[in-house]
Hints:
Elements: H1 6-11, H2 15-29, H3 37-47, H4 51-70, H5 75-79, H6 85-97, H7 102-127, H8 136-149, H9 164-185, H10 190-201, H11 208-221, H12 223-244, H13 248-253, H14 257-268, H15 275-299, H16 309-315
Helix pairs in contact: 2-3, 2-4, 3-4, 3-11, 4-6, 4-7, 6-7, 6-8, 7-8, 10-11, 11-12, 12-14, 12-15, 14-15, 14-16, 15-16
Amino acid sequence: xxxxxxxxxxxxxxxxxxxxxxxxxxxxxxxxxxxxxxxxxxxxxxxxxxxxxxxxxxxxxxxxxxxxxxxxxxxxxxxxxxxxxxxxxxxxxxxxxxxxxxxxxxxxxxxxxxxxxxxxxxxxxxxxxxxxxxxxxxxxxxxxxxxxxxxxxxxxxxxxxxxxxxxxxxxxxxxxxxxxxxxxxxxxxxxxxxxxxxxxxxxxxxxxxxxxxxxxxxxxxxxxxxxxxxxxxxxxxxxxxxxxxxxxxxxxxxxxxxxxxxxxxxxxxxxxxxxxxxxxxxxxxxxxxxxxxxxxxxxxxxxxxxxxxxxxxxxx
Length: 316
């Protein structure tokens, strides 16, 4: 029996489901300013290295895009993930930081809808100024979530990761334990290990495997973006170490993902890639280090994380 081709398969599925599927994939790749589906699949896979985070991120994304469809929001915003990726990130935050419960799922649905509405509203304002949405709704949504959760005794901080090998054994048995142990013991230079973990931190996956999947995806999708990610990260890495004489935030908080995303955005997306754009990354990244240090001091007074806002401020 002849197998259905992809085009024939699309004809058997309703347009609404096709739109939802495209929106889900593009929401992952939007974070790297891409609409490549294979790249998106690798990025999605990287989020499920931590299954709890991956699942809550995907569910938050489905809720947001499904609601956008029901409310007849612009099709382009749904299809290309513009209305979805901020809700995806908020869902990943919740799955990474908090424990599953009935209250968790209710809050996840509400915060994903809140972030969707922020995305639509802020995007409508910025389009008039010809400015991109970036991660502003995610920042507002995440900070709102973190401040609210302090008043909700039913939402508990997750203790996953404390007994990591017990959790791995329960998930995938001894083979998964051996795989993770092998990856952990693999002799990588510290700066390369931190680079991969910083890539994973973009999706709140603080491990080498997620970072490796993302790195492979970037390399396949765009060699220019891959070079920019390396240039941005290591410029920020060495400048931060030189000026602060400490690598704590780079090695343990993985703030280097800001350098990676900014380099790809500034050097290869908002500006046509060239020698000048690469030089721009060399000058912009140290400025980002200064912004990170200044803003982290301010926002940590309220115990709020410094995530993505240097890129937003630099561009706006």
